[in-house]
Prior knowledge:
It contains three helices and five strands. The chain is α+β, with helices and mostly antiparallel strands. The protein has one domain (2-70). A hairpin with a 2-residue loop joins β4 (54-56) and β5 (59-63). The protein is globular, with a radius of gyration of 12 Å.
Amino acid sequence: MQVRAGANQAPIFPAIDQETRPLVSTRQAAFYLLRGEQTLRIWASQENGPIRPVRVGRRLGWPMSRIRELVGQEGKHGSR
Length: 80
């Protein structure tokens, strides 16, 4: 099942329990965490948020395992 963002947002993301990639984009992480993208960027730059991204060049990858922990979905993702 895929989840569509609000009317102002075009991206479609898989449901949190269907995401199989270990890292997701800032936009997708913000969607799952119900936070603004800029909030996550501040967490990354100040290194003081509840989750730390992996830096891949100039991009940020947010660990799905940690996102699931924060939203109470640990152990509920697919086993693909």
